[in-house]
Specification:
two-stranded antiparallel ribbon, 180 residues, 8 helices, mainly alpha
Length: 180
């Protein structure tokens, strides 16, 4: 859920929503610019979080990103390959055009759940809130398991079956043995 050279709060947020909570996230419109396509002068001295938040200022982008990005920010202490970090390395462009200055900035891993009522600071808080979403997490796991078992994504036509299966599984206390 990262690029080779940096993390991606957006990809991470999509992963949490789809893989853990079982929500479907539609693909971005084709004409949406990536962070790398932002105006270099506007973003030269901004952190990844600030650049991502700047992307959210566009009305067409804000609807999705206000849900995706906060979830992804909760995982920002993990770098692009999953190693822990407390600081982010940033290269600050010099006004005189000289060599960029390397600075390290603290990671801001704060975010909010999709309901916007519960905020968190870091992956442990995010995990605690996700664990409160028992039914959603069970549904996400069930859809992932069915995707594997069926060899295809669970679709709209499977909805009634999935709901019935999850209701039966919930009555059994969400135990793995009863699901299998």
């Amino acid at each position: 859920t990262s690029f080779p050279n940096r993390t991606s709060p957006v990809k991470r947020g999509v992963w949490v929503l789809e893989q853990i909570l079982g929500d479907h996230v539609p693909p971005a419109p084709a004409n949406v610019p990536t962070l790398e396509q932002q105006d270099k002068k506007k973003v030269a001295n901004l952190t990844l979080r600030q650049r991502t938040e700047l992307h959210q200022t566009s009305a067409s982008c804000a609807n999705c990103h206000r849900i995706l990005d906060p979830l992804g920010f909760g995982l920002e202490h993990f770098d692009a390959v999953g190693l822990w970090r407390d600081k982010e390395t940033q290269f600050i462009e010099r006004e005189d055009g000289g060599r960029a200055k390397r600075v390290t900035l603290p990671i801001d891993a704060t975010g909010a759940m999709p309901d916007r009522k519960r905020s968190f600071d870091g992956h442990e808080d995010l995990k605690a809130h996700l664990l409160e979403e028992t039914d959603a997490m069970a549904g996400g796991f069930l859809k992932s398991l069915l995707t594997y078992a069926l060899g295809r994504r669970v679709g709209f036509s499977d909805g009634a079956f999935v709901e019935e299966m999850q209701a039966d599984w919930k009555r059994e206390g969400y135990g793995m043995r009863s699901l299998i």
